[in-house]
Structure formats: C-alpha cells, structure tokens
User: What shape does this take?
Amino acid sequence: MKKELFESLVEVIATLRGENGCPWDREQTHTSLKSTLIEETYETVEAIDSGDPQKLKEELGDLLLNVMLQAQIAAENQDFDIYDMIDTLTEKLIRRHPHVFGDVDVDNAEEVVKNWEAIKSQEAGYEDRKSVLDGIPNALPALLRGQKIQKRAARVGFDWDDIADVVAKVDEELLEVKESLQKNDSDAVEMEIGDLLFAVVNLCRFVDLQAEETLRKSNRKFIARFKRMETELEKQGKTISEQTLAELDEIWEDVKKDES
Assistant: This one.
C-alpha cells in the first residue's frame, strides 16, 4: 500500500507536467523552481518550530512536491528520473556509513563526520575541491554559511583553544567597529561590522549554538514583544507612531518585566 502511494504520486506529477496537465506546472524549469524550493524549505523549518505535527506534515509534503517536480523535469530531459535519484541516494548512504553497513568502528559522532568527509573527498565530482573550504554553498544564509566555514577550518586545527579568546575577539571587533564609525568611513564600517558578525557566529559555534537559529529566536522574541507593545497602546487608545521614543522605551520595559 505504501509503495502504491508513492507510485500514485509519481503519476500525478507526470500528469501535471503532461500535455493536458496544469499550465503552471508545465512551464516550470529547474531554475524557475529554485525560489519555491527555498521558500518551502523555510516554511518547513517554521512548521518544525511551531511544534504542530499536522502543519509539519503538510509543509514536508510541499517540500517533497518540489523534489518530485525537479525529478520529473530531469526525466523529461532524459537526465535521470526519481528512481535514479533514490538509487543514488541509497548507495551514497550505505557507502558513507561504513560503521553501520560495513566493518568500520567509530566511538562518537565526531569520528562519523571525519569518516564522512574523508569518504566524500574520494567520490566522483569532488576532485576539484582542493581547499578545506571548497563546496560550501554560496546560496546559504550568511550566518549559516559563516558557521559552516568556521567548522571546516576547526576540523583541521584552525580554531581557538579557549572561549575567553573567542570573547576577546568579539570585543576586539566591536572596538574596531567603533573606531570605523568615528572615522565616518562607510566602507570600513561595513567591513568591520561584517567581521563583528563573523566573530559572534564563531562564539555561537564555540558554545554549541546555531547562529542562524539563535538569531531567528531573537527575531521572534522581538516581534512578540513589539506586538504586545502595540496591543498595550491600543488598550490606551494610542497609536505607536504618536509616541516619543522615551514613551515607547518605557512600555517596552514593562512588556519585558511581564515576561518574567
């Protein structure tokens, strides 16, 4: 029954792309679907954050739809089909997990990652990766990409030994931002703020936090507090644009106190 559900989905996707299918689906290409794929990925992440299984089920389905459409387009171009893709994935998973499907012994997750990278470096398509930092996608969100860059560098020993050094680096970069602001040099300000962000990402990595997720949580917290501030002003018959910054700060602090 489960296999029949998958076969049915394959047929539905093929029909949507077929001669009498949906005009929108038929117009899509690998390239045109890129933005949709990214959007659905973020909506899936949001569904995970919501803790709602039904919402997650729906968003994972939308994400799968994008994968299926990409595979169908490839099949029409006679490049590969969904079954080729599944076969490639299955073979890769078995090859990169010799500690599960072979006779390699590992003691922890860190050794698993090292083996994974070593095996990957020997595979076809990775021959041009000469640097430890090659292969990190440019399209990743900047915080996430920065953290992956730092992880790669750390694997070969280019890393701080103590968290105090990491914090000191953040302090150093903040001081350089202040100095560039005093010079009123916009290019220098941009560069120094970028260095500060990179140092903060490194601090997140050092304390086992995901910088992207950490900022997302702060974004959500700010939005929630701001909305409560708007609600409080509405109760008083006021609008936010009519308030002075001092008045808004006072309400903001009240909102923060209510949280505790």
